[in-house]
Write a structure and sequence with these properties.
- By secondary structure, the protein is mostly beta strands.
- It has two domains: 7-146, Spermadhesin, CUB domain (Jelly Rolls, Sandwich); 230-320, Cystine Knot Cytokines, subunit B.
- The chain has helices spanning 163-171, 176-183, 188-195, 218-227, 239-243, and strands spanning 7-9, 25-27, 32-36, 40-43, 55-63, 70-74, 92-96, 103-107, 117-118, 123-130, 141-146, 199-203, 206-210, 231-238, 249-251, 254-261, 273-293, 300-320.
- The two termini are 53 Å apart.
- The relative contact order is 0.11.
- Belongs to the PDGF/VEGF growth factor family.
Amino acid sequence: NDLFGLVQKCSNKPLFSPSLCSVGVHESQHEKVLSVTGDGIIQSPDFPNTYPRNTVIVWRLVAVTESSRIQLTFDPRFGLEDAEDGVCKYDYVEVEEPVGGMVLGRWCGSEMVPGPQVSKGNQILIRFVSDEYFPSDPGFCIRYSLLQQHEAPAVMPAWMQNVDALSEAVAGFSTMEEVMKYLEPDRWQVDMDDLYKPTWQVVGKSFFHQKKSRVVDLNLLREEVRLYSCTPRNFSVSLREELKRTDAIFWPSCLLVKRCGGNCACCSHNCYDCQCSPTKVAKKYHEVLMLKHRAGGRRLQKTLTDVPLEHHEECSCVCKNDSD
């Protein structure tokens, strides 16, 4: 069997068809790169039978266009070596965003089939790892597909929008340049220069020439507000409370995590209840000392273990429904 598993081009075949072929594949030294133009399948070697030991396989799926997104759907038949203390340490399949290295999920065992995963960009990584002990079956099988892309709706010219709609649109831009491009796409640079042209001030019969300079950086003013608004920031959490573990003691007992915080004063004008909420969440593993009482013993069991903690990587002010 191919170490990198099997790939199926199955645009006109049913989900998880046993007939497989390899299409649009480029192998590199460290990973297998697949050009995604339709539906296909990735699976652990020998699926649905026991996968081999000591195996590391990485697939990089690349959609044909930058605007495309890739969806992953797991076959209900799923089984890898069980987790230890709730952490997939030994045999697992992992899905990762190539840009930024954010892990969308890591799975093992057989009690729960992973849910669908969708890429943020036009690429996504799938990593399969097995160690030298206790291989399981059936392994895993993942169907990948391109999400349908819809054309962007036509944007009404800025001068035709009412004050409320224009205010909300302008508030979403990060720089003054973006604002000017939105207002006047064909002449935004001219408008930018006009803002800082010299002006004449009349005092009595004299004319004073005043040259405007870019002393005030509006981009910087906006960035300062953003830094103190709804953003990820450090919070300390108690491991026993966070993990809901009453049977163990951890050292350190608290760890720092990134969680959303700050106000939402600049939320949409028509929002009744605006809250700072996470829009990108990652599960990260931290190695700590865990102490547990031995059954019938006088000594404590001491082990180094990985504990999963939720980190908020991106935050946004979200308008909650008034009826919630």
